Amino acid sequence: MSILSAAGVEFELTLPVVIIGAGAAGLVAALALREAGQEVLVLERDPVPRGSTALSAGLIPAPATRWQQAAGEADSPALFAADILAKAGGEPDPALVEALAARIGPVLEWLADRHGLDFSVITDFRYPGHSACRMHGLPSRSGEELVDRLREAAEAAGVEILCEAQVTALYADAGGRIHGLAYRRPDGSEERLGCDALILACNGYGGNPALVAEHVPQLSGALYFGHAGNQGDALLWGQALGAATRHLSGHQGHGSVAHPIGILISWATMTQGGIQVNLEGSRFADESHGYSEAAALVLRQPEGIAWSLFDERIAGIARQFEDFRQAEAAGVVLTAPDIAALAAATKLPEAALAATLAEVERLKREGATDGFGRDFAGVAPLVPPYRAVRVTGALFHTQGGLVVDASARVLRPDGAALPNLYAAGGAACGVSGSRAEGYLSGNGLLTAVALGHAAGEAAGRA
């Protein structure tokens, strides 16, 4: 992943804009460029566009949308921005947060009206830290559907997507202007391509064990549930060009990945009244907090394992997600008519499990707060038959990266923009701050879609 001198290099073909990466960020950027009448090429290392987007639940947070208004859900960009900053302890750049919160709603409506993406808003539960129901998704509630629909829209709009093309080097001059790139095809052949502007939409560094060990040591060696192609290319190129970086320890973890099958179990199983216990049958955290910070907490338990416990009412809410339906079909969501059967099915100590469940139900009856800080006021009791899933913690994707402005321009440490380089999604420093608990649900796709659109719009103007 090198930066080579552009001096004396000839390119057979030079395009106005090239995008590296065909996930949500790259495809939305390409759609914005086509809207501006620009010719654009997207280079994707995989045989088909998937990336981190396909591994997500495909949910995008957005305020003041027509879907919210139809559901009677009051929200505003200012409220959304305040929620982001509160979750991240005020660490993110407020100007970037406000810009993304203002942009994302209109972008979703544009994707619906212009490109036929059938969004709707989830109204039967709120994700931790959100003051309103603002998570929008496609009918299957899956990231695979989201990336497939974006790819179809891009192809229909005339975007050229070249798959199995792994970018190996960028060509730049002494001033940091990108003149082109080299990419490798599956047969080992390399080609050079010139460009007037470059958008980095190739995500972060979660798939690079050395970079994870350096920047996110608490999850070094943990299950990586992101895309293997997230090798930190954008970060390394940007650093070599003199770009500023920020919050490289920031990341999204998840404390509820079915183990060993590796299927995401919705955190709605916790926020709607479920609990997690370790192999000793004891709770170990406030489950109403976010799933990101739960990853490290689960991994600190014996064998790095927990059991997520809930009931049929909660399972009914979780079934709107394709991942949960797949988990049920695979047989990893266990069912038990009573506590004795639950203990037998999970191989948890029955006495400890019974005591834990009894204490939780007492807290719910009394509307009390437990020693971890979880407020059980108004939380519905768990009613047999019980449901249980064996889970572990995992790293999903990194949230730190190249510092960008509201137009997705990559910035130097002094705040000046590099001449023609843009970054979106995991390639850019997001709005989650430096800690796992700073991640507000949906921040990953927020920066993918909103910054992708900003990058395409800005590169189209430039």
Automatic annotation (TrEMBL):
Record-linked InterPro entries: FAD-dep_OxRdtase_2_FAD-bd, FAD-oxidoreductase_2, FAD/NAD-bd_sf, Succ_DH/fumarate_Rdtase_cat_sf
Looking at the UniProt entry, the stretches that span the membrane are 13-33
The cofactor required is:
FAD
Residue limits of the FAD-dependent oxidoreductase 2 FAD-binding domain? 17-434
Record bears the keyword Membrane: yes
- Gene Ontology molecular function: oxidoreductase activity
Keywords attached to this Swiss-Prot or TrEMBL record, sorted alphabetically, are:
FAD, Flavoprotein, Membrane, Oxidoreductase, Transmembrane, Transmembrane helix
Choose any GO biological process term that the UniProt entry carries and state it.
steroid metabolic process
PANTHER family (alphabetical): 3-OXOSTEROID 1-DEHYDROGENASE, FUMARATE REDUCTASE
Record protein name field: Flavocytochrome c
